[in-house]
Design brief:
23% of the residues lie in helices and 24% in strands. It is built from two helices and four strands. Strand 1 and strand 2 (46-51) form a beta hairpin. The chain starts with a helix and ends in a 23-residue tail after the last strand.
Length: 93
């Protein structure tokens, strides 16, 4: 599914979609579709949208007109652990 999503849009298109879903879906993510999970950061001439739910990220640097997109993770699970002990590890120690 991730490959299909990547082929359908350019980085510029993903940025425009991130702007739209951030506003219309209450900090929504265009990759995973979740709401209330996207952060918008503005750093000088760069705007970055980052989803804490699936790690999708897209940015636009206005001086160079450069758009960069990093796809999110499509792993969805209906099983939610009762404690953080059962959650998947994201960092190695």
């Amino acid at each position: 599914m991730a490959i299909t999503k990547l082929v359908q849009r350019s980085s510029r298109d993903w940025f425009r979609e991130a702007e739209r879903t951030y506003t219309e879906k209450h900090q929504g993510c265009p990759w995973c579709g979740g709401s209330h999970r996207v952060f918008c950061q503005r750093r000088e001439t760069t705007v970055i949208f980052y989803c804490q739910g699936c790690d999708f990220q897209v940015s636009h640097e206005s001086e160079s007109e450069r758009f960069v997109m990093h796809p999110g993770v499509d792993e969805r699970s209906d099983i939610v652990p009762e404690t953080m002990f059962g959650a998947p590890k994201t960092m190695s120690s």
